[in-house]
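re: ur question from yesterday

yeah so i grabbed the chain u mentioned. its 216 aa long if i counted rite. heres the sequnce exactly as i have it in my notes:
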Amino acid sequence: MSLLFKTSDYISGKIDKFFDSVDEGSLVFKDGVNNYLSKDEKSFAENIATIRVLEGKADTLRRKIENELYLHSLLPEYRGDVLRLLEKTDDIIDTAKENLNQFDVETPKIPKEIHSDIIKLTEVSVLSIEAIISASRSFFTDVRSVKDKIHRVYFYEKQADKLANDIKRKIFKEIPHLELSDKMHLRYFIFHIENLSDRAEVVADILAILSIKRTI
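ran it thru and got these C-alpha cells back, copy pasting raw so excuse formatting
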C-alpha cells in the first residue's frame, strides 16, 4: 500500500490491518450463520465473541487513521475521500456484527427447507465483501485495477438480491406449515443478510468515483 502513502508506512500498515479486520469479520459472519443453522451453540457463541473483537478493532484502527491524517496534515487532497471510504467500509463489519447479535437475541425459527438457500445467500453476500476489500486495497496500490474488481461487487450484489427474493417467495408460497408471524420474522433476517451486499455496493460506488479522481 505504498503508492498513495509513500511518506507514511505507519498509516499504510494501519489501513491494511483495518481491511484485514473487516475481511475476517465477514468470514466469521458466514461461519456464524452456518453454526446457527446447525445448532452448534458453542461455536456460534465463539463467532459472536470474535466478531465483536474484530468490529472493535476496526473502529479503533479507523479512529487512529483519522487522527494521524489530521494530526500530521497528511494527504489533504485525499483525506476526506479516504475517511469516507473507511467509514463506509466500517459499516460492513458493524452490520455483520449486529446481524449475528440479532440471530442470538431473536433466535428465528428457520425451516430446513431453506437452510441451503440461506447458506448460499450468506456466501454470496460475503463474496461481495471479499471483492470490495480487494478493490479497496487496490485503490491505494493499483488504482487502474479498481474498475474490474468493483464489477464483481455489483455482480454479487445482484445475485444476492435475486437469491433473497427467491427465498422470500419460497417462504410465503411454498412452506404452508409456517405461521405468518414466522414468515415475517424470516423475511426480516433474509433482508439483513442481503443487506451486507448492499453495504459493499455503497463502498463500490464510492470507489468508482475515487478511482476516476485519482486517474485524472
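noticed a couple things. The chain has a mean pLDDT of 91. also Residues 9-215 form a domain with the Methane Monooxygenase Hydroxylase; Chain G, domain 1 fold (CATH 1.20.58.220).
anyway ttyl
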